[in-house]
Amino acid sequence: MGQELRLVEFRQLFIRLKRGVVWFDHLLLGLLVWLETRYIEVKAKSAVDDALNGFEPVVEDYVSPVYSEKPSETSTRLPEVRLTAPWYKEPD
Questions:
Q1: Three-state DSSP class for 77?
Q2: Of 23, 57, 90, 91, which sits 20 to 30 A from 9 (CA to CA)?
Q3: What is the DSSP letter of 48?
Q4: What are the pLDDT digits (tens) for 14-57?
Q5: pTM exceeds 0.70
């Protein structure tokens, strides 16, 4: 895939600056593709940083899990340890 300019501003700049000399036009196109890539990266980073500056995380009430330990039915040495949500009900 060849080098392509993605933004209209850079395409118009290339059209205005090209001189009809093949080596110069290729050099100019390469330079503009490199500049355009850096420009897009900086604009994207700036947009993300601006969006994150206004963001405040929502802190929800934290509910502690329930830890339980009881003797195991299958092992005499190791107890059965469970970690469950406080709203979990044991099936009958």
A1: coil
A2: 23
A3: H
A4: 999 999 999 999 999 999 999 999 999 999 999 999 988 988 88
A5: no
Rounded to whole angstroms, how far apart are CA atoms 1 and 33? 13
Residue 89: CB atoms within 10 Å: 6
State the Cα torsion 42-45-48-53 to the nearest 10°: -100
Extract the tokens encoding 21: 């000399």
Residues 6 or more apart whose CB falls under 8 angstroms from that of 34 comprise: none
Quick check: 14 and 5 in contact, CB under 8 A?
Answer: yes
CA distance 57 to 32: 40
For the chain, the structural domain boundaries read 8-53
Q: Across 1-92, where does the E strand assignment appear? A: 66-70, 80-84
